[in-house]
Amino acid sequence: MRYQNTKTLHKLERNWKKVVYPMAIAASLTTSFTWADTTIRMLHLEADPKVVSVWEQVAHDYEKANPGQTIKLEYLENEAFKQKLPTLLQSEQRPDIFYSWGGGNFQTRVDAGLLKDVSKEMEDVKSKFSDVSFNAFNYQGKQYGLPYMVSQVGFWYNKSLFQQAGVDADQVVTWDDFLGAIKKLQAAGITPITTAGGDKWPVQFYWALLTMRQAGQQGIQDAIDKKEPAFAGEDFIKAGEELKRLVDLKPFQSGHLAASFGDSSGNFGDGKSAMQLMGDWNYLFQAQQSISGKGVGDDNLGWMNFPVLKDGKGKATDTLGGIAGWVLTSEASPEAVQWLKYFSNIEMQKHLASINMIIPVVKGADVAIENPFKKRIAQNIANSSWHQLFYDQAFGANVGSVVNDVSAGILGGALSPQEAAEQVQEAWEFE
């Protein structure tokens, strides 16, 4: 996941009497290994109590079955995680295992010698995962970790606000349809969209999806391969122009340029905006961030895939999202490798899927998905002709930050679509 709302590094104390945890998971995961006394540190940006309670119980069961093994689960808020991780990885405080997205940032860390090659150790579990997800943590033929979940970005929308404005989500197919819906919502006195310009990465989704819809898979690949004019080409300028068309309608909530992801999700959860472009993880987060703590309920919540561009080369089935997982640092012990394999069991994946936390990557775990939104999104990804990783992860930290910056620049009127494309290209030339 790309979020959370905790503000400092913290350790959650275990209170086993309050943990509600299926005994089947504990039974299926408990296997005894004989290792030397060791502490295994695992760092994540997840802090949802429902997920943490599951992890803590699994760690407890593992420690009980393996005397001398101590699992130390640690958490950082999303932005702090991204900012502090590079320093942590160079220090004596580096974790043994940490949360990672596939793509350029992951590959950069491999190249820097920060991650551990666990190809041999993971060979016996490879067949349990979907090929695409497992290979997200394979680089130049070597495996450095295991996948955890997949995700998709799309529009969450409020059905009652759509109905008030006379907007039919099923009829929003093209970008022009979408802009028309924006005008209807505004005419009804409804704020069409909430976003988080302060954090920038949520805004990047617009530029990313518009470039995907305009350039298509081959166009994006050509740009990645530095085939001139690459990211400075007409397709990328055109995508920026389409984003500017949206911005010129002034569809966002007041203060959107300074808003955080939590602010934006709370705004949507409180029914103050009709839409939010965000990943499937926002299903729970918008409720958590709302004043009521309940957010937009299932009966009033809708999901739309990002619309297509009339003359674009991309397909409606092309999806943007992530493949997230866990990687091991270079000095991680054999015990840490075994713990990660244990932690990635199908029963764990099934349980987290059943409580609407993840779209699982272990084969067969998807049968546990009960939520209709998660089912639909899982099917979207399964049917996708091309699943593009988040640009700010796929392109590496340097280029990714530029993509975030130029997206916010177009949103705030500080950059033209051409300037934005040129800046991304300039950053890519130096990769």
Automatic annotation (TrEMBL):
Residue stretches in coiled coil: none
GO cellular component term of the entry, any: periplasmic space
Superkingdom, taxonomy of origin: Bacteria
InterPro entries assigned: Bact_solute-bd_prot1, SBP
Pfam families named among the record's database cross-references: SBP_bac_1
Subcellular localization, as worded in the UniProt entry: Periplasm
Main subcellular location of this protein, as a coarse class: periplasm
Family, as annotated: Belongs to the bacterial solute-binding protein 1 family.
Name the UniProt record assigns to this protein: Extracellular solute-binding protein
